[in-house]
Amino acid sequence: MSTDGSDAPRRPKLAVWKFASCDGCQLSLLDCEDELLDVVGAVEIAYFLEATRATVPGPYDVSLVEGSITTAHDLKRLQKIRRQSKVLVTIGACATSGGIQALKSMADTEDYIRAVYARPDFIKTLDTSTPIAHHVPVDVELRGCPIDRGQLLHVLTALIQGRQPRLPNYSQCVECKRAGTVCVMVAKGEPCLGPVTQAGCGNLCPRVGRGCYGCFGPAEGVNTRALAGHLRAGPAQGGSGLDGPATRHLFHTFNANAPGFREEGQRHG
Amino acid sequence: MAKAAGATRRIKVENLARVEGEGALSVRIRDGQLKNVAFTIHEPPRFFEALLRGRPYSDAPDITARICGICPVAYLLGASLAMEDALGLSVSADMRRLRRLIYCGEWIESHVLHIAMLHAPDFLGYEDSIRMAQDHPEIVKTALRLKKLGNHILEVIGGRAIHPVNLRVGGVWRSPSRDEVLALRAELDWALEAARGLVGFTATLPMPAVERDYLFVALHTDDHYAVCEGRIVSSDGLDVPVQAFHDHFSEDHQKNSNALVGATRDGRTYHVGPLARYALNFDQLAPEARAAAQAAGLGRVVRNPFQSIIVRAVETLQAVIDARALVDAYAAPDPPHPEIPPRAGTGHGATEAPRGLCHHAYTLDDTGHITHACIVPPTAQNQRSIGEDLWDVVAAHIEADDARLKWVCEQAIRNYDPCISCATHFLTLEVDRA
C-alpha cells in the first residue's frame, strides 16, 4: 500500500549538492542519528549522493549546497541547481565564504604552481574559490566549519513548515557570556576571534580554554580592526602580543575570504 | 542477454553515490571481452599542501582536518604526531591512551556509517539505507545508535564530532575529567552486544566470490591492534619506522584523475585498510573479536574484498572493546600539553584512518613555520588496488546485464569506503587563463 495516496500532502523534495569541500557539512545530516528517520519521513530525499544512488529529477523544494566554486564546470552545475530549486540553503564555510581553499585566491599563483605542480596539464581549476552567493541568489545561509546540526535541523524544520528560520547574527562573545564560559582573552591573553565571529557553535573552543578560530565567519557589523589592535598589543596592554603574520593567519583560515576577515588579515604582515 | 557480434558495451557511472567525494567509473567491453576499466576521481583539487606553507606548525592539525569531514581525527592526530616528531616531543602514556580512545570513536562512527548506511544496501539490493530501514528497521536503528556512540566519544574528548576542537600538537587543550570519560561506559557496555550483532548481520550478507592476492600494508605494534602508533609492516615482510614511508612508497599523477596514485617504490600495487590491518594484526585482536570473526566464517587472512564489510564490523567490535578498556584505565593527562619551543626539523606521522594508513610529513624552519608538507591519504594508496579489483569483478560478472554489472562495480568500489575528498587534497591548481 502506498503511503503517498492522493489525500496525503506532497512531501517537500530535498536535494543535497556538493562542490569543493570535505563532505563534513552534509555528513551533519547523517549525524542527526535520533532525528534522521523522522527527517527522511517528512521529506522526499530527491538527490543526496552521499546517502543514496536513487535520484529524482528537479524541481526541488529545498536544496542544501555544500562547497565552494573552484571550476568552470561546477559554476555551470550550480546555475542549473539554482534554476531547479525553490529554496537554496548554503551549508558551511566553503559554501558561504569559499572555505580554507580560498587561500589560493590570495597566494602568489605562480609560486603555488612552481612549488607543487605534478602534471599541470592533467588538472583544470579556476584560480579562485568563491562562495555560492557570488554566483547565484541564496535564500538561507548556514555558517560553520562544520555547520551545527541543531541549526541544520532548525532550518529544515522551519522550511518544511513554511516558516522563516531564525539564526543568531550576534557574536560568539554573547554566547560565552550566556553560558558563563570564562573569557580566555581576559583570563589568559589567549588570541580569540570570538568578538567578531558569529555565534552558533555553542562556544566550543573557549569551553576547552582555547581561543575561537572563527569557524562561523564574521558576525554582522563587527569591528575587526579594534580586535586586531588588541591581538597585537603586548601583554602589558592587556593584549595577546601577536606579530603581523600570526594576526593574518588567525583571520585567514576557514573563512579567509569572508568580507571583514579577508581585509583585516591582509592588513597584517 | 543477447549480444550482437562486434557489439561494444559501455557501462558508465558518472557520479558515484554513497562514497565520500566525487568519483566516476567507466567500463568498456567489446565482443564479450573486457577492454578497459577506469575509476577516476573528479573531486575538485583543494591543494592543502600548498596552502600550509608559511603557516605555523600549530595550524597543521586543524587545517588538514578539513581534508575530510568523516575522518578528521586521522588528520588531527597524523599532523600532530608528525609535528611532535619534528619538534622532538614525546607525549605521555596517559595522552597516548586518550588519543587512542578518541580514535576508537572515529572508527566506530565511520565504520558503522559505512557498513549500515553506505555498503549493506548494495548486498541486499536496496538503493540506500532509508529503503533498507523499511525492511530491516532494527539493523538500521542499532547502527544509528552505535554511530551516535562513536560521535559521542568524539564530542566528549574532542568537543565536536566533525572537526573536533580540543586536539592539538602535544596533546589536548583541556583534559576531560575522569567522570566525563567514565560516563561513556554504560553505552559502551550496550555497544559490545550491538557490535557483535553487527558482525553477525554482515556475515549473513550474500558475498560475490572474488579472491585477490593483495600486498597488505598497515601499522603494527605488538601490544594492541594498531590505530595511531606503530611501525609500517607489509605482508611481504617489510617492517620500517613511519619515517621510512617515502623510501618504500611513491605516488604518481595520472591523467583523468585529480588524485595521486600510490605504489611501492618498485612499482607494485598495495592495499591499505581493514583487510590489511586484519591480516597483519590478527594476533592483536581481542579474543572476543577473534571469536566473532571466526563465527562469521573468516580465516586469519581475508582476500575477498567484498568481505571487507565483515572485517569492518569485527574492527568496530575491536574498537568498542578497546574503548571500554581505555575508559576504565583513563587518567586525565596532566598537563594537557607541554610548552613547545619551536625549532627546525622534519617530522613524520602515520595513523590508521578507518580507510587505511594515512601518512604525514612536514619540514619546519627554525621559527616552527612549515616549509614543506606531504600528506598521503589511504584512498590515493588504494586507487590502483580498486582498479585491479574492478577488472576481476567485471570478468567474474561479464555475463550479467548492464544494470547488474554496474551495481556490482559500484559495490566493489565501496569495498574500500573510498574517501575521495581525501584522495584529492593534493593537487595543485592549473590556472585557467582563457
Summarize the structure.
Chain A has 269 residues and is α/β, with parallel strands linked by helices. Chain A contains 13 helices and 5 strands. Chain A is globular.
Explained architecture:
Chain A has 269 residues and is α/β, with parallel strands linked by helices. Chain A contains 13 helices and 5 strands. Chain A is globular. Chain B is globular. In chain B, 44% of the residues lie in helices and 17% in strands. Chain B has 434 residues and is an alpha+beta fold. At the A-B interface, α1, α2, α6, α10 and α12 of A face α1, α4, α5 and α6 of B. Chain A: This is Oxidoreductase. Chain A: Its cofactor is [3Fe-4S] cluster.
Write the layout of secondary structure elements.
The complex is a heterodimer of chains A (269) and B (434).
Chain A: E1 13-18, H1 24-30, H2 36-42, E2 44-48, E3 60-66, H3 72-84, E4 85-91, H4 93-97, H5 103-106, H6 109-116, E5 140-142, H7 149-160, H8 172-179, H9 184-188, H10 204-207, H11 224-232, H12 244-251, H13 261-266
Parallel strand pairs in A: 1-2, 1-3, 3-4, 4-5
Chain B: E1 8-13, E2 23-30, E3 33-41, H1 48-52, H2 60-65, H3 72-87, H4 93-124, H5 129-135, H6 137-158, E4 167-168, E5 171-172, H7 178-182, H8 185-203, E6 217-220, E7 231-234, E8 239-240, H9 245-248, E9 249-253, E10 260-264, H10 274-280, H11 287-295, H12 308-328, E11 345-353, E12 356-364, E13 370-376, H13 378-396, H14 402-414, H15 420-423
Antiparallel strand pairs in B: 1-2, 2-3, 4-5, 6-7, 7-8, 9-10, 11-12, 12-13
Protein name (chain A): Oxidoreductase
Keywords (chain A): 3Fe-4S, Cell membrane, Iron, Iron-sulfur, Membrane, Metal-binding, Oxidoreductase
Pfam family, one (chain A): Oxidored_q6
